[in-house]
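Question (not urgent): is this output format expected?
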Amino acid sequence: MAQEAEGEMTFDPERGSPPGSRRRVAVVVLRWGITLAIVMAVGHRVWLEKEKLAAYNLHLAPAWLVISAVFYILGLATCAFFWWLAMRDLGGRPSIMSTLSAYYAGHLGKYVPGKALTVVVRSTMVRGPNVTIALAAFTDVLETALMMATGALVAALAFALVYAPAHRQLLGIAVVLAIGLGLLTLPPVVARCGKLLSRVVPQMATGKAHTWRWRTVAVGAAIMAVGWLLMGLSLAALLGAMGDAGGVVGHLHFLRMLSLLTAIVAFSTVGGFVSFIPGGLGAREWVLLELLKPYIGPAQAIVAAVLLRLVWIVAEVGAAGLFWLLDSPWKRRQVRLS
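Got this back:
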């Protein structure tokens, strides 16, 4: 019989797998299960959107669709940067590459029922020696809340800039959403929530040296506002791909056009988020359709809403794959150096 050295764990087939081995198997099964669920949900959504577009005789400019996707990914990058900043503010030290990889992959999780999957994917992918799952999840929730609060505020300001009687009610709703979601990100509220969570999850305790600062919130709101403008440009490029449906891009002054399209994108996205429907599916398209319809007509508005969803899904898949490939060699180098 083989003797066991003191402090070593051996495997006895008659006694079953050691706890560590079973845990690793469970983690692998869970990861592949989540991956399969995301792939199936995203694939199903792409198929449905493609079927919707098949009913229209479309003549699209591919270059403008690519530009639309690039603007969207750049817009999301501002939110990913804030998440990285938030983790560092509370004591974590994630790499930029791991943050981007986890952030874009997490976006795909929103198409699976249960909004928590986005947080699960991001926090498990970015975790490491300097970032706990609890810290990553907590800051990801803060990032989402600030992103939506900033989106509502940007929509309110943009609606005010291109004021029309039809926008009066939307402006008021946007202000209420901005205040309600923004309150969740303020340092006193975050500090209280952090203390409560640290009692349940000890890993949340980051020490007195690491606190959520007003400067972090201000910087995050500023860069996210830029991100929403980029997403407004994404919609403008999409309308350009459709031949400038309704003449919104070509006939409006650039500042007025950008304000209008940014307001439409931001308000519809926030509306989809507060609907609690996975990925805001249907809710976001309905709001986008209703806001675009007066400017480009019902038929073109339907095409724009469906096409924007399809372009953004493809862009999310592409960004998630790209940064995952870039992040893998980065992690291998870090392991070798350590």
